[in-house]
Amino acid sequence: MKCFFEKFHKTLLLLVILTVFTEISNGRYHGTRELLRQLLERKDDLYYGGDDNEPSISADDLPQIGELFEGDIVMDEDLKNTVLGHNKRSAVAAAELGHRKHWPGGVVPYLLDDSLKPIVRSQIIKAISEFHKCTCVSFVPKTDEDKNYVVFKDGKGCSSSVGRKGGEQSIHLAYGCKRIGTVMHEMMHSLGIIHEQSRSDRDEFIKVRYENIKKDLVHNFRKYDYLESRNMDIPYNYNSVMHYSNTAFSKNDKRTLESKVDPELKFGQRKQLTHYDLKQIAHLYPCPAYSSKHDQCFDEEDGYNFVSDMTPEDAVERKRDTEDLLEKLLERY
């Protein structure tokens, strides 16, 4: 019940701020325009609690257009504006832009480039099969009529754009990207899904250890604006295939990310999707058949070997169970 009221309060506060800001834009309440503008710009900190140690960045700190951001995302102009906080859209405008970045009907035409290593090619085919079975997304071979499509190809590391860009766009998968979870991670980027730790509410659940991050890669730990990331009412998931590992971009092998509920919790798996990963995809690409697809995927006899979700509540419970077990062992021995 407490969780419900907290979510209700945050949602109500967002609606109030956006409503008042709309009234200001229409010429009312001139005297408080600047005050409420500042309030809107700080809304994520007000809702979720900001991180006082988060360094400020400028456009000069970010990768150039076409270069990699957050390790595997191809930077574009809209993404750069989002990271810098320049996209101060209304909720409606943000939603409309999001839909333009989605693949109509969940259909993604694709090509398999000859440069792909055989093991990577087979993992792509397997990933496509799992998407077809468990989601409403269909990766289909490109035809001459398809103007927007993805090309799976070899390259330096693993990378993709976020969402549909228009025309040809690449998903680079080198030999080191051969794990099925890594392949699906990049495919989820192409569908429009960001990294889990980039969510606007991440400061509730994750502590970023900026002192351990390589200086020129601090920008990889920015969180997105609430209207841009749209957390989809899905709980934060440490086990998401879209989450960084604990030591991502570390300069000293120490942790750059820690769970606030259990500092010893390890995350950043690339084994397989989780239930909430599938739910994110279903939120962006819904269809009437999703329920039956979901049930089929999690069928105990015929289902895939999905990774269990790990919400903050799950992490607390697991930590408590571990401590209880240790206490019993100590009592016994």
Architecture overview:
The model is unreliable at 1-9, 36-49 and 88-96 (pLDDT under 50). A hairpin with a 3-residue loop joins strand 1 and strand 2. It is globular, with a radius of gyration of 21 Å. The chain has 333 residues and is α/β, with parallel strands linked by helices. The protein has a domain at 1-41. It has eleven helices and nine strands. The protein has helices at residues 2-25, 33-41, 43-48, 77-84, 91-101, 118-134, 180-191, 226-229, 275-284, 290-297, 312-332; strands at residues 68-69, 73-74, 107-112, 138-141, 149-153, 158-160, 168-173, 206-208, 257-259. It has a five-stranded mixed sheet with strand order 4-3-5-7-6, covered by helices on one side. Strands 1-2 form a two-stranded antiparallel ribbon. Strands 8-9 form a two-stranded antiparallel ribbon.
Brief account:
With 333 residues, the chain is α/β, with parallel strands linked by helices.
The helix count comes to 11
- Any idea what the radius of gyration is? 21 Å
Helix content: 25-40%
Q: What is the ordering of alpha helices and beta strands?
A: HHHEEHHEHEEEEHEHEHHH
Largest sheet: 5 strands, mixed
Number of strands: 9
Q: Strands of the largest sheet, in order across it? A: 4-3-5-7-6
Strand content: 5-15%
Approximate shape:
globular
Oligomer: single chain
Query: How far apart lie the N and C ends?
Result: 41 Å
What structural class is derived from the secondary structure elements?
alpha/beta
List its traits:
two-stranded antiparallel ribbon; 5-stranded mixed beta sheet; alpha/beta
